[in-house]
Specification:
Elements: H1 3-40, H2 45-48, H3 52-62, H4 68-79, E1 85-92, E2 95-102, E3 114-115, H5 120-128, E4 132-135, H6 141-147, E5 154-162, E6 165-173, H7 183-206, H8 237-254, H9 266-289, H10 291-300, H11 303-322, H12 332-341
Antiparallel strand pairs: 1-2, 1-6, 2-3, 4-5, 5-6
Length: about 350
């Protein structure tokens, strides 16, 4: 083979190899530069976003995502503002498999890494469905051996709950820089991500005319690890299940019917339950993006006037989904509007609000 031909083949092979590693290398360089310039600026990564304003910006970045992949990528990117290293693991049938990492020397090595969840922090978080902090020695030994122990020996593991199940785990530690792990801020980010995934899921479902809420059962793809999940609220399910029939009976009596002997079929009860949950989601979204307006509206008793556009847009979304269903009698949208935005004081909505 001519020498110049061999050189051309080698150059091409090297260029292709570099291209494959470019994305991971670029992120590693960014993280390393931030770590080096941080001390010079007297700002550590965790401290840079430790204020309420910084945390709010991080949540806003997550909620700028419109697809599950974008949301999860934003979560991971913002997690390293409050830690040195972070990784997201998808949980299926009790097995946690790596999705992507951030801040590691080789982020791609996280992919498809299977965590040992049989003991230690991992087992406790799966069982309790609450965040866990502890020593690196109490975490998967295989993971620590492969990726190295954090400088301060501390790790955090946070569950991402979807449909009342642990659907993912967010691992975080300080990496090579002790003091950069802010578990409280990470907990806020993970909870916000779970709520936003739910809003996105419900909104997309509501846009499908005449299509009932359905759980997706297709196998998750590598690009969308949560495709098999239909996110739902957690923690309030029991309360909602009890309150929906009562609300429906009250609505029936108010409309001239009798609540005596009023019994919902399992199918109708489920529709009422979903309508109430969807109304709550819409109110949560309004509050999230209009905190100042909500506060001022409560103070001056004119919430509706200040948020009329957002409220009516959400009402249209709600009615499109549930206006012609058995849940229409429940008037859940206005109930949640009064409960959530006006804290059960209808006078705070102002004179222009009509039930």
């Amino acid at each position: 083979m001519p020498e110049n031909r061999a050189e051309e083949i080698v150059r091409t092979a090297v260029a292709q190899a570099l291209e494959r590693q470019l994305a991971s290398f670029r992120e590693s360089v960014v993280q390393e530069v931030l770590r080096e310039v941080g001390p010079a600026l007297s700002v550590k990564p965790a401290q840079a976003g430790s204020s309420a304003a910084g945390l709010q910006k991080a949540v806003a970045r997550i909620q700028a995502g419109t697809t599950q992949k974008e949301i999860l990528r934003a979560l991971l990117d913002n997690t390293v503002l409050y830690s040195g290293r972070a990784a997201l693991f998808v949980v299926k049938n009790g097995t946690a498999t790596g999705w992507q990492g951030a801040g590691f020397s080789n982020n791609d090595a996280i992919r498809d890494f299977a965590l040992d969840m049989s003991s230690g922090i991992g087992a406790r978080v799966l069982q309790s469905r609450t965040a866990g902090n502890g020593a690196a020695s109490d975490f998967d030994h295989g993971f620590i051996s492969k990726f190295g122990s954090p400088a301060d020996g501390k790790v955090a593991l946070l569950p991402l709950l979807l449909k009342d199940k642990v659907s993912a785990l967010v691992y975080a530690d300080s990496g090579a820089h002790p003091g950069t792990l802010d578990a409280a801020a990470l907990d806020v980010l993970v909870r916000a991500t779970s709520a936003w995934l739910e809003v996105i899921s419900q909104r997309k479902q509501a846009q499908k005319d005449g299509t009932p809420d359905a759980e997706m059962h297709s196998a998750p793809s590598g690009n969308d690890p949560f495709a098999a999940h239909a996110p739902l609220h957690t923690g309030k399910a029991h309360h909602e299940a009890e309150s929906v029939p009562a609300a429906a009976m009250s609505a029936a009596a108010a409309s001239g019917g009798s609540s005596a002997g009023f019994v919902l079929s399992p199918e109708d009860a489920e529709v009422h339950h979903k309508a109430q949950r969807f109304a709550r989601l819409l109110m949560d979204e309004i509050k999230l993006y209009n905190q100042a307006k909500v506060a001022d509206g409560r103070k001056h008793k004119d919430i509706y006037d200040r948020l009329k556009e957002d409220i009516e847009k959400s009402r249209a979304t709600y009615l499109k989904r549930y206006g012609n269903t058995p849940a229409a009698i429940g008037n859940y949208f206005n109930q949640e509007l009064i409960r959530s935005l006006a804290e059960d004081d209808v006078s705070l909505l102002g004179k222009n609000f009509h039930q």
